[in-house]
Amino acid sequence: MRVDVVSIFGEYLAPLSLSLIGRARAQGLLDVRVHDLREHAHDRHRTVDDTPYGGGAGLLMKPEPWGEALDAVLAAPPAGDDGRGPVLLVPSPVGEVFSQAAAVELSAEPWLVFACGRYEGIDARVVEHYRARGVRVREVSLGDYVLNGGEVAVLVVVEAVARLLPGVVGNAASLTEESHAAEHDGLLEHPAYTKPASWRGLDVPAVLAGGDHGAVARWRREQALRRTARRRPDLLAHLDPARCTAADLRVLAEEGFAPDGASGFGPAPGAVAH
Ligand code: ADE
Fold first, then answer.
1. Are the CB atoms for 45 and 51 separated by under 8 Å?
2. Could you tell me where the DSSP H helices lie in 63-172?
3. What is the pLDDT of residue 263?
4. Axis crossing angle, helix 63-74 with helix 125-132, rounded to the nearest 10
5. Residue 177: per-residue pLDDT
6. Counting atoms of ligand 1 from 1, which one is nearest the CA of 149?
7. Residue 179 Cα, ligand 1 centroid: separation in angstroms?
8. How close is the Cα of 92 to the center of ligand 1, in Å?
9. Ligand 1 center to residue 98 CA distance, Å?
10. CA-CA distances (angstroms) from residue 152 to 5, 117, 139?
11. Are 22 and 163 in contact, with CB atoms under 8 Å apart?
12. Which residue's alpha carbon is nearest to atom 1 within ligand 1?
């Protein structure tokens, strides 16, 4: 996968040389190229920002350097580009909230381009222009809070996407058994333990050391359901009742959830929330 990142703070992307992502780059699984937006600002001060029309606090990024920078990136597709071009990702607090499902979709793309805004963001015509040109643009938010710029979001999205590429994570099975994985019904993962069996008076649940794989699987499923019900009940709205066993339904009922008549679970009538 090729990843181009346009930013005024390329140093912010240095962690993409570390750990599994760094190794994936060294192995040629991931080709990350960072471009300096200021190379496309041509006045004496290499200005990339200006005051907003209509007034208001803060500065916006000007469209001209962005247009020039993105045109240059788009003009140099990776070898083997299928002609669809990249997905252009614009981190922004007004974007769709990034999710594991989005990471899975993006991991199937050969080419991602990130445009990192700073200040109060980028002149809105930049996204409008590239959409009109047929570029697939996705504005993505990490969550309901405001960052100083898009670079941290790039680190998050690239890590979440790149670890799904074949060969990046050693044990591929771990990708389907973790929190938010579709194969795991989008549930939170069960609690996990390693040796020693007893630590500071706390024992590992006996079932996990008992050698009964069926019992372990049932215990883990129950824990995943209870954890999700207590911590992230919103995720149960996407849990398909058709994928639930009678035991699952019993656990969810104990937690106060029942099929909601649509495609998921909601609070059972009369249930007392935990
Ligand atoms: N830039 C500023 N705030 C952001 C957020 N919440 N997510 C992604 N990019 C951002």
1. no
2. 63-74, 100-107, 125-132, 151-162
3. 87
4. 30
5. 87
6. 1
7. 23
8. 4
9. 10
10. 12, 11, 14
11. no
12. 92
Instruction: Tokens for 242, please give them.
Output: 């058709």
Confidence (pLDDT) at 5: 98
Q: What is the pLDDT of residues 213-238, one digit of tens each?
A: 999 999 999 999 999 999 999 999 99
State how far the Cα of 219 lies from the Cα of 210, in Å rounded to an integer: 12
Atom 8 of ligand 1, nearest CA residue: 141
CA atoms in the 13 A half-sphere facing the CB of 250: 6
For 111, counting Cβ atoms within 10 Å of its Cβ (0-12 exposed, 13-18 middle, 19+ buried), the class is buried
Rounded to whole angstroms, how far apart are CA atoms 229 and 121?
A: 37
Report the percentage of the chain scoring pLDDT > 70.
99
Q: Output the six-digit token pair for 196.
A: 């020693």
119 Cβ neighbours under 8 A, 6+ residues apart: 49, 58, 59, 60, 61, 149
Alpha-carbon distance of 243 to 107, in angstroms, equals 26
Rounded Cα–Cα distance for residues 122 and 113 (Å): 15
Name the residue of 89, 92, 99, 145 to mutate for ligand 1: max ligand atoms within 8 A of Cβ.
92
pLDDT tens figures, 55-108: 999 999 999 999 999 999 999 999 988 889 999 999 999 999 999 999 999 999
Using a cut of 0.85, tell me whether the model's pTM lies above it. yes
Asked if the model's pLDDT at residue 273 lies above 70, the reply is no
CB-count burial class (<10 Å; 0-12, 13-18, 19+) for 183:
exposed
| Percentage helix, strand, coil for the chain under 3-state DSSP, each rounded to 5 | 40, 20, 40
Q: Rounded to whole angstroms, how far apart are CA atoms 98 and 203?
A: 37
